[in-house]
Design a protein that fits this description.
The complex is a heterodimer of chains A (342) and B (313). Chain A has 342 residues and is mainly α. Chain A contains 13 helices and no strands. The C terminus of chain B is likely disordered. The chains are: A mainly alpha (342), B mainly alpha (313).
Amino acid sequence: MNKILTLQPDISFNEDDFAKINAEDLSANNNSGHLKSTKGSNAVKLLIKNKAAVISICIILILALFSFLGPLISKYTYYEQLRGFENLYPSFSHPFGTDSLGRDIMVRAMYATRISILIGIVSSIIVLIIGTIYGAVSGYFAGAVDNVMMRIADLVYSIPDVIVVILLSIVLKQPLYELFNNSQSAFVKSFALLGPGVIAIFAAFALLYWVTNARIIRGHVLVLRETDYITAAKALGCGRARIIRKHIIPNCASQMIVTTCLMIPSAIFLESFLSFLGLGVSAPMTSLGSMINEAMDGMYTYTYRLVIPCVILCVLILCLNVLGDKLRDAFDYGQKAKINEE
Amino acid sequence: MTIYIVKRIFQAIIVILFVTCITFILMNLIPGGPFLSEKAPNAEVIKNLESKYGLDKPTVVQLKNYLVDLSHGDMGISYKIQKNRNVTDIISETFPISLRVGAIALLWSAVAGIALGCVSAYYKDRRTDKIVNFITSLGTAVPSFVFATVLLIIFCVKIKLLPSVGLYSASSYILPCFALGFFPMCYIARLERASMADELFKDYIKTAKAKGLKESRIIFKHALKNAIIPVLSYLGPLAAGILTGGIAVESIFNIPGLGKYFILSITARDYPLIMGTTIFFAAFIVLMTLITDIICAVIDPRINFAKGSKKAA
């Protein structure tokens, strides 16, 4: 009886200990969340103070509204050919005029901007996921694993990207067309609208462009893995996967945000380049690059057709570049300020 | 350092081999042969054609044959664009044109970019810096093909000052080279500004100033030596960028360079030519990166060779 009594508190103590561990684990999580949120809010504060950053955010929002809400309001569609209304100069009913097939250029510009934005975001998310996982694993395991993984990354980095993308878009064209035509699922069909060139771009980003991101994340993880809270997590018996998932990746958030932001304009750049060469988005869907390509034919007489997509493309890339740069500065500065406070 | 250089050369060879194999396999994966067209020839003709070009053998054997031929500098013959002509001949004829335009673009963009970057760093946060910064951030947002078309409209259509097609006189080099070099120029200027501004704050510059050296001597003799290294290491990617940007610019200005043939071969599905140009482009880019890395290693003794890679992060 006595024995049991003395055992009883022992057991309950163990349970307490468990609870404590859980609480500690939770608080570690909260702590990292807290750390991130202060860093993030510092950066946001700095960002809002910056005039250039605010202006570019506004312009990006306006372009996004223009491209996503515009087609809902407009009475034309991007593929409808208005007979008898070909080659119109800008007027009240067609603010940007019409092209040689009688399609309203304003609606086409809206769709083109939408495609560019979407491709930019999707590609950079692909890069983000692959790069982060690769970089985190490589940095966390370090040693031989890291060495091999980084040599592979070096190899991939030196493969000429644009050439491979062009090659991929040629090669994927035929098989993807067959896939689109034979498939019944709506999901696959929705890709058919974009065409094989876009899929090639995604594939190229997944295959080649993650390296920069992976290197940045790896560099950060190499520092993080020596910190006390990772040692604590290890001591508490966290598995490697859990440490990477719950402790390391959330603390790379600022790096992830910045690299993603800087990746979007380069994806848009690449897409417009390919579409300009006629390898990107397939007709009748349009993108800024293919609009420029179409406008090249009549550029002596219908210069406005060339100017409109060019201006939208450049403004979009410019704003994204500025935003990415300022975001990086803000996070860098925020981190420095925090270190100074400590 | 010798170990580092040997390692880098070895890596470059692996990349070129890898790209060659990937290109070959990808080209072979495309359904439909090069001889299928609207008016399909009969089966026997196709068979004869395939055996003539060695397309009836298994892919692995074809790859081996291609690699063996490639090591002799033979890339097969063009099927469509310039029928029965050696791909190597086409490349050796058209590449010098691309190279000339590209080299001029690279040269002016590097010189102007470094100069602008120095000026901008020297006048940091003053009006000159702001103007330069505005131009360069605008420039890094304009793709070279957009800039080329804009130039074409302004100088050939509106004020009819410069020729718009081909390369017949010295003046016809101006627009393509300018268009091709503008984006890299802006990028280099930004790189140079950042590294120069860092450099100008360092102690050795203070020492130089304290010694009473002239400003120009401090900047060009002392600071530039260190500040130019990021730009130098960017030269490899820059060459790649100019080469690929050249593809679009050449088709805009109708220059018969390799880039134009690359696009032509893609639209005509001339597989040996696509393969030849891809491998050639890739090898050229890898070579340029290799040269840049070696130059950087020779110039900058701070690079850590033990790790084998030039950047830790």
